[in-house]
Amino acid sequence: MAPSGSSPPSTLGRTERMVLAAVAAVLVVLMVWLRGGLHPEAPLERLARQSPELTVALADGRPTVVEFYADWCEACRSMAPAMERIERQQRGQMDVVLLNVDNPRWQPELDRYDVNGIPQLEFFDAAGGSVGRSIGARSGAELEALSSALVDNTPLPRLAGVGAVSALPDSDTATDVAAESAVPQAGPRSHG
After folding, report:
1. Same domain, 35 and 57
2. Bridge partners, 163 (sequence order)
């Protein structure tokens, strides 16, 4: 029996304790690596954080995909891994810009591109000209087909919910049209 005030004798030898400590350290490193580092970030947040400014993207001579999204949007979150993969694969050939519909900073863009549902993708050619729009969730294969068409400067694939957009009116015409049709419209953040 051990004298009072002392701990019981160790049943593990020094080598066994070192092996257990090494295994524990490897497991911690593996868990941190699998979760994306010490401060894991979801793909949607990573994409938004590294997104170039819209004006820069539209002027840099590369095609651009603009995604209007919200943090709470499940469809946006489900598309994010595929969007992130495409952004990585097409880096230097195409820009991916994310604009959060809940950020008042983007209200002029929400109005300009008539965003009335999310996710909404706007597609631009290398000259910054609008070539199409997609509303609603897209599969990884659809996103790859769309981005490949942009990079290859070919027509967008025919997919449900994807289409060409008409030219945006100049600011004077837009003001006249807005004044004539003062009918309230549902916005991307409305739920009713």
Report:
1. no
2. 133
Calpha distance 135→11 (Å, rounded): 65
The letter for the amino acid at 49 is: R
Active site residues: 73, 76
Percent of the chain predicted with pLDDT > 90: 55
Count of beta carbons in the 10 Å neighbourhood of residue 145: 16
For residue 16, the enclosing domain spans: 12-41
Q: Is residue 100 part of a domain?
A: yes
Q: Tell which residue, 162, 148, 157, 151, has the closest CA to residue 126.
A: 151
Exposed/middle/buried for residue 122 (C-beta within 10 Å: 0-12, 13-18, 19+): buried
- State the average pLDDT over residues 56-80: 95
> How many residues are there in the chain?
192
Domain annotation covers residue 117: yes
Domain match, 82 and 166 both? yes
67: enclosing H helix or E strand: strand 64-69
Q: What is the pLDDT of residues 18-57, one digit of tens each?
A: 888 888 888 877 666 565 554 457 888 888 889 999 999 9
User: For residues 64 and 128, is the Cβ–Cβ distance under 8 A?
Assistant: yes
DSSP 16-30: HHHHHHHHHHHHHHH
**pLDDT (tens digit, 9 = 90+) per residue, 93-124?**
999 999 999 999 999 999 999 998 999 999 99
